[in-house]
Amino acid sequence: MRSILVRAIWKILLVCFLFAFVILFVLKWPDCQRWVHGKALEKIRLAPMSLGNTSWTIPPATTIRAYRLFDIKNYMTIMTDMKNPLMEFRETEPFLFKLAIKKNNVEWLDNNTTIHYSVERFFTRHGEYSKALLDQQGAFIDILRVMFRTKYGSVADSVFYMLGGNNAFNYSKAIDKLEGYISPMFAAISSRMQGPNRDKYGFIYRYNGTNGFNYTILTGINDLTIKGQMVDFASE
């Protein structure tokens, strides 16, 4: 009988405690909400000298990108068969690169409601590259040749073939297509290339450490719902 009474008392006390906690939570929730909102706003608010600006300028997140190239298996047939055969290709094994982004040339405009900046990108190999990965070879579309080809009409004149040769594909190591290579086409037009990193040509090589893009965005300093909306964009 006594044990039943003790259990009943404990249950009543527990219910009272829960009710008291709920009532206290309801009464104090507006203050808690404002405190949580203030702490969150402090972290994400994009304004000069703010914590949000520090994490925005040099993002703490790590970005890993996997780059694969398409190895054209029947490239000789494509170049010699006038019947336009279907292209047969396979993907190379992925090359992993770590991408770090930093904002430069930051300008606060319109009473800090907009911000103009450029993006600097740094690519580094991620993880250990095996010999098999580095030795991957194949016939790849020569992007530099494609870019140069657009300057001519539907039927290119002999100058194009004198500079670029007759081979539409470039057989080489896949890693060179990313980290840079020198071809006869590159040697012919390198003096007219713009921007940094002009000693060779490669997707990663050309963009590594460059301020390639310029943005103007809304800071949302007075309205977080519009933070990050793009106002203007331009490439170098």
TrEMBL record:
Subcellular compartments: Membrane
UniProtKB keywords: Glycoprotein, Membrane, Transmembrane, Transmembrane helix
Entry's transmembrane regions: 12-29
Cellular component terms per the entry's GO annotation: cytoplasm; membrane
Superkingdom of origin: Eukaryota
Pfam families to which the protein is assigned, alphabetical: CD36
Gene Ontology MF terms: scavenger receptor activity
Family statement drawn from the similarity comment of this UniProt entry: Belongs to the CD36 family.
PANTHER family: LYSOSOME MEMBRANE PROTEIN 2, SCAVENGER RECEPTOR CLASS B TYPE-1 SR-B1
Name of the protein: Uncharacterized protein
Organism: Rotaria socialis
